[in-house]
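Minutes, project check-in

Agenda point 3 was the complex the collaborators sent over. CS summarized: two entities, 332 residues total, and the question is how they sit relative to each other. Sequences were read into the notes so everyone works from the same version.
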Amino acid sequence: MIKAVLSVCLVLVAVSSTFGKYIPKTGKRIPQTLSRGWGDQLIWAQTYEEGLFWSRSRNKPLVVIFHLEDCPHSKAVKKVFSEDNEIQKMLDEDFIVLNLVYETTDKHLSPDGQYVPRIIFVDPTMTVRADITGRYSNRMYAYEPNDIKLLMSNMQKAKKLLKSEL
Amino acid sequence: MIKAVLSVCLVLVAVSSTFGKYIPKTGKRIPQTLSRGWGDQLIWAQTYEEGLFWSRSRNKPLVVIFHLEDCPHSKAVKKVFSEDNEIQKMLDEDFIVLNLVYETTDKHLSPDGQYVPRIIFVDPTMTVRADITGRYSNRMYAYEPNDIKLLMSNMQKAKKLLKSEL
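CS then shared the predicted structure for the full assembly.
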């Protein structure tokens, strides 16, 4: 009797794996996350338009991180950034966050060119804060792992919102 | 001795939880996926620009799914769509996929208005296939769970690429 039950179970397992979820020929993939490793606990906007919408409606500045998943400089900053609880907390509570591996069509997001990693702040008035820069005069919006304190003080700057021009 | 080892372990646990990853006040969140439940094994574009880029460079049509996470109609189609292995396989192998919970600024993606769920095909020539429609004359790009066969035949249509106008 036990044997009979067992074989029914085995049949069920076989059936459920045949009719199971689609698996690509190249093998099962890990689902992509919107965070891409920059902070799994943050609520990420998917697109720049969505980020702007949330920024305006919640009156919080938007942070846009341009990066590439196979760029060692991006990865190095990402590691420090995602492991810094103070940054993560401030981002979660006071900012709208967006990370992009593609450039947008909006030229204001590349004040001195398109490069990665590049971190740009946008005020809820939809003004790109080109005045909030990092340490490097040739790539003003780039940060390296050692610049994390500067990044944090730039976040504090961005939290002081511009007055609405209306 | 065992007691001593135990208390060291407890101290280590306490330390590691203090210095652990950031957890929001409202509790730990499940990381957001780019698939949003429409197929965890597919490789999703994040933005329309990215989708168009991959569509052109790989010469595959782009599918854009407009939906809302708390819309029952979207959810119903999503369930059938994500569980249909034939659709998932075809999407994975022959299409570029994008799902959006926000409208883009491109009006061509809303030929008869902005509503969800709405599925729009775009040819690699960057032409929106307004000719590939569902069953409903008032919402031509809407699909319901029963329309999954029609959706599949529309995918076959979209795979027959338009000739390049060049």
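Noted in discussion: Strands of chain A lie at 62-66, 96-100, 118-122.
Follow-up: revisit at the next meeting once the mutant set is ready.
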